[in-house]
Design a protein that fits this description.
Elements lengths: L1 E5 L2 E4 L4 E8 L4 E10 L5 E7 L5 E3 L7 E6 L4 E6 L8 E10 L4 E5 L3 E6 L1
Parallel strand pairs: 2-11
Antiparallel strand pairs: 1-3, 3-8, 4-5, 4-9, 5-6, 7-8, 9-10, 9-11
């Protein structure tokens, strides 16, 4: 199983980006999916979570601006980011709990850089 995150880039403050996290390989189902971010010199922080049942949670810093979603048919998750601010600049990582043929394992995507200019 492979997890790939993409969609980052350079955007001006107030702009939007949509990140994608695509899983490939022998997949029975994707349970939960999470997005994290890590700014330079800082720890990796949880940004948003979507559960098996579709419930979502967000860090206070992104509530009302970011939306996590998933397309189970495509084995892909998304993070829609609106009203971006310079403090949102970070490498964004996705993490998913994926069930293969026999067991469920947590996988990490490789990270995608989001840079927000003021």
């Amino acid at each position: 199983v492979r997890l790939q995150a993409f969609g980052g880039g350079l955007v001006q403050a107030g702009g939007s980006l949509r990140l994608s996290c695509a899983a490939s390989g022998t997949i029975t189902s994707i349970k939960s999916m999470e997005w994290y971010r890590q700014a330079p010199g800082k720890q990796r922080d949880l940004v948003a979570t979507i559960s098996t049942g579709g419930g979502t949670t967000y860090a206070d810093s992104v509530k009302g601006r970011f939306t996590i979603s998933r397309d189970s048919a495509k084995n892909t998750g998304y993070l829609q980011m609106n009203s971006l601010q310079p403090e949102d600049t970070a490498v964004y990582y996705c993490n998913a709990n994926i069930r293969g043929l026999c067991s469920s394992v947590d996988y990490w995507g490789q990270g995608t850089l989001v840079t927000v200019s003021s």
